[in-house]
Amino acid sequence: MKRIAVLTSGGDASGMNAAVRAVTRSALAQGWEVFGVRNGYAGLLADAFEPLAARDVGGIIQRGGTILGSARCPQFAEPAGRAQALAHLAAHGIDALVVVGGNGSQSGSASLAREGFPVVGVPSTIDNDLYGNDVSIGADTAINVTLEAIDRLRTTASSHHRAFLVETMGRNCGYIALMAGIGGGAEVIAIPESEVEAPEVAERLRAAYRRGKSHALVVVAEGAKHGVQALLKLYGEQRASIGFDLRLTRLGHVVRGGVPSAVDRVLATRLGAAAVDSLAGNRHGVLVGMQRGEITATSLSEITGRMRPADTALVELARVLAM
Ligand code: ADP
């Protein structure tokens, strides 16, 4: 390798900057040149490349979001769009590309790899849905922000004998809801991988009220099929028999932003460096990851179309501990 490019793609995640810094400086340490691509795959199509030097990635390790910008780019999923991207990569003499992004972005990496371009993926998404990696960059920060919100809601819930329904982000993956629900001592956790129907949630809240609880928290992942609407409707009908008042808080994008946690900064640094190590060893067409505390590399063709399985035993643990 002599010249590589790095981009951040898809939903932004706290820690992406630490990954860009690690990729850039690890590559410079190899004696390579580094180019940053603006706005993910859209920048490959728009020919938005710029050289990155060590100072260009200074002072960004503690910043959320991504200095390179991110975007969604449907044209890249089409062969014609990728042909244009490949032409721009060739015109700049780029030997390999590092893609920092989530599930969709790594499907894009897999397409490039299939078409013969050397690419290494770095898992970065608050959803934490990537196969071949335990925890993606950004997930820890998102859980901590969610948890802080849950802790704050709990104090107001206690004061008013209320139940709070907290909807978390995460697309089709319940990881944030599960971890924040466990960490926040939720009465009910509803995730796509382990659905709880509205009547069951209502029953558990009713039982919690009868046991003398001063508050109750229900954490629902945005991707749960029996989402917050079904519960609110049922609650409207059964409010009198349940006991608690119910209020809804949708956390939305707020959990994506802000200062990356220590865990995300260290993870992003290690995975960014691992991506460059992989390229230095001429191993590409892979997603670098951290599994059971070890750096791993999984073929992009193997991860495409798959999702990291949830630890549903934790849902049951939360139910038992909500006594
Ligand atoms: P994330 O990476 O956070 O999951 P998206 O799912 O929005 O975000 O994907 C980001 C971008 O990756 C898309 O806008 C598109 O450019 C590219 N992409 C997604 N799926 C594919 C695919 N199957 N083939 C090629 N590119 C894809």
Structure in a nutshell:
This protein is of the alpha/beta class. The protein is built from eleven helices and eleven strands. The structure holds adenosine-5'-diphosphate (ADP).
Provide an overview of this structure.
The protein is an alpha/beta fold. The chain is 42% helix and 19% strand. The chain has helices at residues 16-29, 40-45, 79-91, 103-114, 139-160, 175-183, 198-210, 228-242, 262-280, 300-303, 313-321, and strands at residues 3-9, 33-37, 49-51, 96-101, 119-123, 162-168, 188-190, 216-221, 245-250, 286-291, 294-299. Strands 3-2-1-4-5-10-11 form a 7-stranded mixed beta sheet, sandwiched between helices. A 4-stranded parallel beta sheet has the order 7-8-6-9, with helices on both faces. Helix 7 (198-210) packs parallel to helix 8. The radius of gyration is 22 Å and the shape is elongated. The mean pLDDT is 94. Bound molecules: adenosine-5'-diphosphate (ADP). Adenosine-5'-diphosphate binds at residues 9-11, 41, 72-74, 76-77, 101-105, 107-108, 111, 125.
Whole-angstrom Rg:
22 Å
Q: Terminal Cα separation, in Å?
A: 58 Å
Biggest beta sheet attributes: 7 strands, mixed
- In percent terms, what proportion of residues is strand? 15-25%
CATH topology group of the largest domain: Rossmann fold
Structural class: alpha/beta
What is the 3D shape? elongated
Overall number of structural domains: 2
Estimate the mean pLDDT confidence.
Answer: 94
Low-confidence stretches: none
Q: Which compounds are bound in this model?
A: adenosine-5'-diphosphate
